[in-house]
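Hello,

I think I submitted the arginine job twice by accident. Can you confirm which output corresponds to this input? Input:
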Amino acid sequence: MTGSGGGQLWAGRFSVAPAPEAHALGRSIAFDARLAQDDVEAGVAHVRALQDAGLLTPAETGALAEALADVGEEIAHGRFVFDDADEDVHSAIERAVTDRLGDLGAKLHAGRSRNDLVVTDLRLWMLAAGRRIDAGLAALVTVLVARAREHEATVMPGTTHARFAQPVTLGHHLLAHGWAFSRDLERFAEWAVRTSTSPLGAGAIATSTLGLDPDMTAARLGFHRAFRNSIDAVSDRDFVQEFLGDAAISATHLSRLGADLARWTDESLAWASLDEAYSTGSSMMPQKRNPDTAELARGKAARVGADFVAVTALLQGLPLGYHRDLQEDKEPAFDAADTLELVLPALAGAVATLRFDAAAMRAACASEGLYATDLAEALVQDGVPFREAHERTGELLKRLASEGRALAELDDEEWAAFGVPDGSRMLDPDASVAARTMPGGPSVESVRTQADALAALVAARPVNP
Ligand code: ARG
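Support: Only one job matched these inputs. Its output is below.
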């Protein structure tokens, strides 16, 4: 290292080393070391660009690429020693290459800035995380589809306001979660297309005079395209913000599935029980089997939402160009990706092993209120205006309640008087569900059609670039 500072890459212009507390504030190695392999990859693509531009001989390029790979190996195996003066992973890797190669290492950073490098690394890292999340989401949808197929005809009370509303099938309800996750898959795939843009070559803000070819570099790194504007290239954090928005939505979906699992497995419903492998005991109460997996899926959504809010607040009002504020984009991005990667397989496992109590769900369908809408609709089929049918049905229920009787106790005459002669046969969850022949409804046929469509969507989903 040259210069009179504290050993920093930029020390030439400085006469004193950074104050220790300022250095501590700026140092990002604790979190950005996760970008090391991406930084090496970007470094190798960059030295090839320097060679193409005639600034490095093939031998020099080979030596630099080898040194970069070597440093990457050391970091991967935990053998790398970060220097106190290393500010971030980018400076640590460049410093280590220079330690190995001396003057040749000092050629590495020509035409490159940490401003374009850091976003190149982060895009590479996040695209890889996106592929893992895509796989996790696809696996979860696949589990939901399989469980839905098993329970295409299992009747249960559908609820609104968490109160019994109308009979549905369990398969229909499970697929409702599946459709939500399929939209997450689509969102992450669309995000990946936009994110697959290489910023390398943008330099600090204004590219360079060195004749580098950003398109070639983009292709070498597997990006779809290179940046179109160097200022945008170093300023753009849409790809982080959008990822976090998509992640927050997906985490919300996971939390809602967790909420259903917690509810279905509580003692008041007991429609399902979590496998022991996905439950936890209590440190004090020996009888307990708690739904912590489901609850954490619910609770973890809060931090992912907060990650989105943090990066949104970070970017709002920030002028274009690189600012050190932008260093704060990484921890929320890593946190959201890590959280999804934790929750997705845990919930998939919990759903795959969940034991449903079909008999308990069917028994709950004895609640007669579930059929009130069907009775009103039977009147509508006979030409009664719906408002009147609603009122007549409501009045019947009110009268029966005051008499302490149930719909099941009505005789044929009473049903005829009400206007629905086969009313007694309608108090049946299978009949109720079967009568819903519309596509998108809870019938067995609809569940099959939906399951096929969802499975096909997952199988044909675009490959994340
Ligand atoms: N550690 C920095 C970050 O994460 C890298 C870029 C630093 N660039 C600079 N000009 N100080 O954003």
